[in-house]
Design a protein that fits this description.
Blueprint lengths: L1 E3 L14 H7 L13 E2 L4 E2 L6 E2 L2 E2 L4 H16 L8 H9 L8 H4 L13 H4 L3 H22 L13 E5 L2 E5 L6 H22 L2 H4 L4 H6 L2 E3 L6 H14 L19 H9 L7 H17 L3 H35 L3 H17 L15 H12 L9 H13 L5 H4 L2
Parallel strand pairs: 1-8
Antiparallel strand pairs: 2-3, 4-5, 6-7
Helix pairs in contact: 2-3, 2-7, 2-10, 3-6, 6-7, 7-10, 7-13, 7-14, 10-12, 11-13, 12-13, 13-14, 13-16
Length: 413
Amino acid sequence: MLFKSSLNNNLMYKKCIPLFVLSILGLTSCENDDSGNTITDNTITVPATYSFERDGSSTVSFSGQTERILMAEELITAMIDFDNTDTQALLDMFANENTPFTNEDLNASSKSVKSKVAASTDYFSNAAATSATIRTDFETWMMAQVSEVFPARNTVATEGISGQIADGASTRYVNAKGFEYNQLVNKGLIGGLMLDQALNNYLSISVLDEGTNREDNDIDLVEDGKSYTTMEHKWDEAFGYVFGTAPDAANAIVTLGDDDSFLNKYIGRVEGDEDFTGIAQEIFDAFKRGRAAIVAKNYTVRDAQAAILREKLSEVIAIRAVYYLQQGKLAIEAGNFGTAFHDLSEGYGFIYSLQFTRNIDTNTSYFSKSEVDKYIATLSNNNGLWDVTPETLDMMSTTIADRFDFTIEQAQN
């Protein structure tokens, strides 16, 4: 074994690939591995599960991604722990400082959530100021939760007053403008951490092919003391931000939606809408096929699968943004403001995450940061969610859906 040093269309998801595309990708037929069988074509062999080995050892590794997802889980849980959380505890969890976690393995980790928020090579390597601004957003939400919402936990929320508000049988805790800061952090991390790192970093061609990665992969030159090549590992790290907490990652599609509170969960939610059934399998298959293409040294197929992942994972964010805007609209029309504020706080986080999406036609985000900031300002103006109108929510929903290939009616189910 060779070693090297370690380096720091939403409506028809199960359709066959047209023949001219198959020709470009070097494939020979329409593939469907739902039966669990290994698929072989004239270029690559795609396993039935996300399982890859070299000399009898697994080459799949994404422990850092699993750790960051678990850190983020503890962080969002702590944000509504009124009795045991303070500002410093939240900031320490974000940065992994001062052993803040209940899981000692996380305390011992060199990883952190903060270091990877808005940190992708493609979007932020030359935008340090923007990256810092985004990280500050998250820290501001954390601090405001403690300073504004915690002291008002027993106060009834009204316009301009933080406190609690009923959402059916649940109680929500909102700021003076009706926002749940914990939801802003939760849903904002889906874009700022998971999506940005997967699409704009580890699936980036500049990262996959960095330095001598392609030449090393061509000769199976593995990292020092590891079983994988650098390119294989980068692809796995993208996979980890989607499926990294699955009890059986090789068969992660089986428990999709139940494995974390972030991207995995909401792929599951979109999959549960009959208008988008099949998207989860398409995402999982693209990860498998792209990884198999790396093993086969077929970089054309690899890049095609990366493009599929950029499109479909970006679409998940947009679908859920529209979904929550529409749910919030319905709740406002029914006079259920607690329900509306909860839905629109989630919608705020998904709108915030739109700036981390990846349009395969333009190679940039579907929505710029300035556009996202305008939508956030629209929701936050004056008394915030207390003042927002159904017409405004429809307008935002239309704008988002029009950038993608789905309708408001499809997304609102």
